[in-house]
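Action item from last week, closing it out:
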Amino acid sequence: MSGLDDLLLPERSRIVHIGPHKTGTTAIQGAFADARDRLGAYGLHYPGQKWQVYRPALALTGSAGHRGTGEVDPREWANLVEEIRSYGDDRTLISSESLVHASADRIARLRDDLDPERVQIVRMIRRYDKVLPSIWQQHVVNGYDKPWPRYVGWPLNSPTAQFWQRFGFASLTRQWAEVVGPDRVTVVVVDESDRGWLLRVMERLTGLPDGFLKVGDHARYQNRSLSWAEAEMIRRANLEFNARGWSDAALRHYIRFGVKAALKPFETEHAEGRPQVSPGRYAQLEDITRRDWDELQALGVRVVGELDWLLPPRHDGPLPDVPTAADPSAQGPLLLSAPKVIAAVSIVAKRATLSHAPALGKAPDLRAPRPKAPAIGPARSADRRRWWRRAPARTVVRPPLDQALAAWEKHLAAGGSEDLIALLPSLSIQMPAADEVVIAHGSARSYDELHVVRELVLRRVGSAATLIEWLHGAEPEPSYGLPEDVRLWANQRAVEMRAAILRNGTKVDGDLEALDPPPSDSAEPQLPAASAGLLLAGMVAITQRVARL
């Protein structure tokens, strides 16, 4: 293990930072890109015009890159090599996580093109329990549609999984060390407790003064991790893209460079959750970490950092009896604030107006998902038959809030834009008037969902009718951010309903408490991630319909 005092790489070095993904690469690339014009004073150059040499790296490795990247000119690598050579004896640094896809023969080409006597490789390693959820989120942004619990079991149950080849401490390092030589490889351990650590290491490696590198101010360099709810919103949209065969170019245009960018300015809320490796896996991860650390040390490469930084946290005592945060059923639906969903859907509409907006395909399926059937009446078939035989003597009565939401949904779908509070005085609520009534919820969407639809309509974004149609493809959820005025109104109407039932001696099939509005822990509308994802996909469908008119 090396300290910070002896890290400077030799003069004339051609330094290749290979990442991999989710190990602080965005912060490093942003810092060097922002300082590009000032590096020459210290005999250092950061070639290219962009924040990383992404396309030249793809040209070298022959890999496809992110979904929807398109064709890459194979001459891009050769052009980068020529630029590097133009800097003569100065140090140069190139960076791209895509270089981890290089096979042994492509690594050999890089070594030869950059001069075997001058090339130096730098890579980062990070705690596996931190990398796994970050990589799942990265895959989701690129179109992956499998949920976190299903994804995390794949590498942890398979020692030969591709994850270990790309992120394993020893496996990826060995691949490069065998070609360029272990004395030309530096491995840097990510310190989760010190966000400035990686930039200080890079300063020492490249001969820059302390404090020279800063985290880039541009939003593109602020590559914060998605919350679980944000990732689930995108994953639900991916399900529609993938099931309908919508183009990779469109997914990249709307999701990777649209929705993800729209989410960056927002803070992540605690209630949105974080995908985590279950504490029951910590002992397994510690064993893997210690084994890989020993193999890394045996390679003879230079390592900067401590083993303790890589170990998962200790979990003392018995494992939790309830599902952990790796299981969303432990905490109910993952919720997103309304402003965040509005921003995400709005960016889809905005990007549809760009001249280079790609089509979804030749004949894309733009139909909304099939709506979920409302659960009205008895569940068992025999009871249902008896119920329908006696239907003339029974009436289905929905709670007041459901009736109000159904009226508001109809108003918005017809082109209206009034808030629900403004509609309440004019609403006529159905009261129980039969000998027997069934109390059942209807199929109207929640207050939170309809609030977002209205806000989008006020911004002249999309069609309310189509957005509501897409929302019906999600499981119904209660209203989480119900305004107090609406709650008081619904409570008063529920009191009136119960009084009418008692006054008339009406027989009730169901719980009278179901007439009351649900409790709410939030004063602001909160959308389930599944509903938000359907709004994203629905907005894409709306923009394509408009383009085809």
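Closing note: Residues 320-326, 376-392 have pLDDT under 50 and may be disordered.
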